[in-house]
Structure formats: C-alpha cells, structure tokens
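Narrative of accomplishments. A recurring question from our advisory board has been how the design workflow behaves on a single, concrete structure rather than in aggregate. To address it, we present the structure tokens for one chain from the evaluation set, followed by the sequence designed for it. No filtering or post-editing was applied between the two.
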C-alpha cells in the first residue's frame, strides 16, 4: 500500500427539517446533509399527520429518527434491519454520548434515552 492514498468519505448526517407549504400548513421531513429527502422516514412522519398526531409529536419524532439514521450511517448499519446487538449499542450510545445541544449538563438520562412510556388509567 505504499504510494497509494485512501480517502474516507464522512458518514452522512440527517436532520429534521420543518417544511411549510404555500397554504401555510407545516410538516416535518428528514433530509440528509446533502438535502436529499429520506423517503421512508418522511413517509412515517406523514403517517403521524394522517393519524391526527400533534405537530409537536411529529417534530420530536423527526428529530429522534434523524438521530437514529445518523447513528446508523456513522456506524455502517442498515437502518431498516440493524439487529438486536446494534440496537443495544445504540441505546448505550444514547445514554453515554453527550447531547449536542448541551441541555441537562450535556447528558441524556436512561429514561430519556429509552423514551417515556405513558399509561392510561
């Protein structure tokens, strides 16, 4: 390998993006760092809208799905079929890796990482 150079491409990142239509309605989509829509996750967000979920639910879900897609891309995982060990590593990463926005001291709690479960009485 002497005399050759290897270039590594950075992993793609995904972001939740707010989309406002001409009539003023708001929806959320997930786009890559190259502004390509991630069609499957955007379809999932559309399904939330069709079930009359709150726009806040859609916004939070968009951010969480974008984070998951970015993690999968950075770790070479197939987002659609990661397997149990990979999901376990993702959960561990959610707890151990500091938040980028720096809230709560930059750390997520285990409750936040696993999601809050609501029960109805």
């Amino acid at each position: 390998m002497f005399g050759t150079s290897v270039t590594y491409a950075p992993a793609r990142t995904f972001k939740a993006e707010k989309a406002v239509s001409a009539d003023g309605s708001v929806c959320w989509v997930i786009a890559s760092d190259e502004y390509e829509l991630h069609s499957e996750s955007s379809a999932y967000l559309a399904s939330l809208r069709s079930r009359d979920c709150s726009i806040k639910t859609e916004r939070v879900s968009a951010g969480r799905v974008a984070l998951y897609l970015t993690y999968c891309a950075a770790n070479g995982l197939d987002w659609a079929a990661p397997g149990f060990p990979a999901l376990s590593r993702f959960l561990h990463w959610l707890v151990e890796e500091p938040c980028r926005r720096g809230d709560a001291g930059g750390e997520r709690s285990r409750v936040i990482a696993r999601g809050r479960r609501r029960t109805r009485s």
